Amino acid sequence: MKTENLPKLLSRATIIPFILVTSLFFAWGFANDITNPMVKAFSKIFRMSVTDGALVQLAFYGGYFAMAFPAAMFIRKFSYKAGILMGLGLYAVGALLFIPSAAIGVYFPFLIAYFILTCGLSFLETSANPYILSMGDPRTATRRLNLAQAFNPMGSLLGMFCAMNFIQARLNPLDTAGRATLSEADFQAVKAADLEVLISPYVILGLAILVLFFLILFVRMPKNADREHSLHIGASLKRLLRLPRYREGVVAQFFYVGAQIMCWTFIIQYGTRIFVGQGMAEADAEVLSQRYNIVAMIGFCVSRFICTFLLKYISPGKLLMALSVAASVLVAGVIGLRDINGLYCLVGVSACMSLMFPTIYGIALDGIGDDAKFGAAGLIMAILGGSVMPPLQASIIDLGTVSGFPAVNLSFVLPLICFVVVAVYGYRTFRVFYKTE
Fold it and tell me: 38-52: per-residue pLDDT in tens?
């Protein structure tokens, strides 16, 4: 793939639409990373195991899987803008459903709210990613998507900050074991107070998304990027499935998203084990672990801009492979080290992950033309990896120890396997796909 003499990323006519659509990357980054710490929070509030708490991720990322192809069909019939508006509407409804969920006071309604919220995110990602790819010359599509995706970790940082300061720090400091000793009346009082704390950021988020909905509703999007074509689902899918680069891209995306969500969700459990072992109270250990998570996200954000620059000189496949190998080495450290150095390795993994999602996306959709809408849906469905993998890792963590080895360390074997799969895809990209197509 040539990297010199590339055209401009954007024309003047697409700058404002690009900014508006890029704001959506920020919006779903916020939703993703205010949610990851909720696995631990719900486990405490409802006195559940880590595995039961991880059902939050099953509901959250299950919405992506369930709605991706319906979203693609909706976008095909109407437009990218209509898909974005539908996504924002579902996003807002899901966030505001936290109000009745807290009033009911049981776990299951929260899972429904998360599922509806992420059905909206599925619409947004199915619309926004190919829309960004279409806003200019195809030769700069991957760089353009990496630039837009660079604002995703900024939303993630804000989500983590809100989770740490407005939820985790304000929850009752009683740990899971302490709550188990409370009388039923006292437990219900503590739970009600904690749920009131938990829902407030989501209610504010829902109202903010409604404002964004009306802003985009009244803005005209360029017709050339939003035009419709006559597409047939069966024929489109057949063409896509004949492309190894696309098929394997869906698989790589599944494993990448699984690795990302596992690393960001269970950094709290990993750090808590270390700090509690040093004599720190569990509540304080959780807040400190979340700070390390924020540092990881800062590294992710900075690395995204660096990697976007490097793509001018290094092919996407080579950079993807190099970062996947580096992530694998760091995860090996996460598994083998039992002290703060293991946590440092886990923080470092985020810098390696920054390039992966948009680059896999751009490679898989490169040059597929009118099939991009359904191709995008397949790649969004691959976000199911974030739904399937965390409960598997949680079930390992719940073991406590395995032959004297901390189960939370051992559980990171799953992200290690995921990064190896992504490394293989990066290798095949520059060694096979772009030599044979």
Answer: 877 888 888 887 778
